[in-house]
Amino acid sequence: MMKYVKKLAFLTACSLAVQAHAGEKMTVLLDWFVNPDHAAIIVAQQKGYFKQNGLEVELVEPADPSMPPKLVAAGQADIAVDYQPQLQLQVDQGLPLVRFGTLVPTPLNSLIVLKNGSVKNIADLKGKKIGYSVSGFEDALLNTMLANSGVSAKDVELVNVNWSLSPSLISGQVDAIIGGFRNFELNQMQLEKQEGKAFFVEDFGVPVYEELILVAHKDKANDAKFSAFLTSLEQATQYLKQSPDDA
């Protein structure tokens, strides 16, 4: 009997080792091209934390930044990096999505203009063009900020510039952009020797929210692999805190 138990334990251990080595495949759709906001995900991949937790993760940059949640809802990917305000609209539209984790817990979204341009405050945007990349929640954020400054949504023209947020502003295609992150687009503009000025959403009537969240199909979110994914991100976050220079 003891010999049988030992043999069973050995076979079980071998089976678990094979599973851990093979890894459970997961496809993660980013909200944007890779940038510092994805640091925990990238570090978890590079330092092998996903593999340690039995996952084989593929990271995919979207061709269209509005598509990742829709693809997860359609079962074509496991996880999407999404925006908290956008999720509420998506669920209201019937998409079977649920949030299972947070990537960035504070607002990053901003209304950005050229520092040396004609727009000195939000009220100056009346009659101007504003570029955006993801319709829905960015419209809602903008409308709240405009109303807070005495401007109607009808007083501005919205232009879908897709990926080209800061380029469209620098080139003069638009007078302002909504959806630019204060820790990315402003730095990107500095590299182009163009100073930007940001109006933070939370300073103009928008309640504080979590900028980047992780969503999955609501029928699959209880799968153990999602817990393993969060464990990997926690390990990566601790590494970033303890070794920021190495990261």
UniProtKB/TrEMBL annotation:
<protein>
    <submittedName>
        <fullName>Thiamine biosynthesis protein</fullName>
    </submittedName>
</protein>
<dbReference type="InterPro" id="IPR015168">
    <property type="entry name" value="SsuA/THI5"/>
</dbReference>
<dbReference type="Pfam" id="PF09084">
    <property type="entry name" value="NMT1"/>
</dbReference>
<feature type="signal peptide">
    <location>
        <begin position="1"/>
        <end position="22"/>
    </location>
</feature>
<keyword id="KW-0732">Signal</keyword>
<dbReference type="GO" id="GO:0009228">
    <property type="term" value="P:thiamine biosynthetic process"/>
</dbReference>
<feature type="domain" description="SsuA/THI5-like">
    <location>
        <begin position="35"/>
        <end position="247"/>
    </location>
</feature>
<dbReference type="InterPro" id="IPR027939">
    <property type="entry name" value="NMT1/THI5"/>
</dbReference>
